[in-house]
Design a protein that fits this description.
Oligomer: single chain
Number of domains: 1
Number of helices: 14
Radius of gyration: 25 Å
Shape: globular
Length: 409
Amino acid sequence: MNQGENPGKRENNGTRKRSFSCVKTTCTFVGSVAGAGFLSGRELLVFFGGFRIFPLFAGGVAFFFGFYLFLRLGAEYGGFDGVIAAIFGRKISKAVRASSLYCSFCVGTAMLAAANASYPRFKPFFVALLIVFAVFFTRKGVASLGAFNAVFTPVLIFFVVGCLCGNGAFSAPEHTGVLRGVSDMFSALVYAGMNVFSVMPSACDFGATGAECGAENPEHFENRAENTRTKTRITGLSGIENGEQQRRNGIFLLVASLSAALLCALSALILSVLGSDKSSYSYPLPLEKILGGNGIVSALSAVGTAVTFVCAFYPISKAAKKRGTGAETFSALAFCLCSFLPFEKIVKIFYPVAGVLGGGVIAYCAVFSLRKKDSAFEKKEKIEEEDFLRKGRNFRGIGTRALSRTIPR
């Protein structure tokens, strides 16, 4: 630290950096979900059925819980690789990694298929351009991913809300029976599980950098994991929160809350517009039918496709780097080939499978986190009790020695 550096200025710089990091993380979470399928309304109709309050609320709670969980786990275990190794061990970790890559691949393929459906004249050149775009913005890791989303996601949200409010008619929420409500809730949870699972690698890596979200060096995550293990061996109090952890967890709560609230609000707005003209439900891209398919809608669809595809490509790019250039080339070719599948078929067939896998992994991670937290508190209480007893013995020893001096021999 420089001796001439002003502490107040240093604190202000740290506050600005943390604030921008929160913005980057929130924009990445929202951008990873609000792609072409989300903005077209097709995904929302498949999993929510319509403008219904209960499934929207259930989905929002699931988004919040999943985002917060993986931010905390990433902070504790030093990124995605550390989380997988610590929670699932060597035997199951490979299957979990494969499931995560499958989920990200499904989301990325759906975005490319939506691009082909929206721009059939540019097939497959637009898809190839998106892949090159994603490779460029994911090569430097989670820092460049966050910066990319911090630029494009706010612009996307602003213009989408403007188009919906300016051109779309709104409808009131639908009322359904109890059985249909339970079915819609389960479907919404599957949708949230799929999206949270696809963003799990980036969420854990963002969490590994605490509130800073700016690690450029890939070895940062390994160092964080090793430091965490060393601290655990020294103190024996893994999971007990100090002041720094509480501040960091407060930031994670804020990021998860903002992300879930924005996704719920956008979902409700789109479904309300779609409900005003239910004949649009039969179209592959329903919202484009209502808004007329003008140039602004097409441009927003392209931006949404690019944002979500870059987010989905991040874990695949990270895994491919460990296996060399051939793996990256194979991944790009696989995306190109699968982009010719019908968009609505990908959403109806592959998304539910990814959602069930994601829900299972999220539930297991949540149970692991709760059990570990209970174990940490038990250790803390035991140590406090031993410390109290030790102090009591020391006090009795001091009192006995003092009393022996006052008694005449």
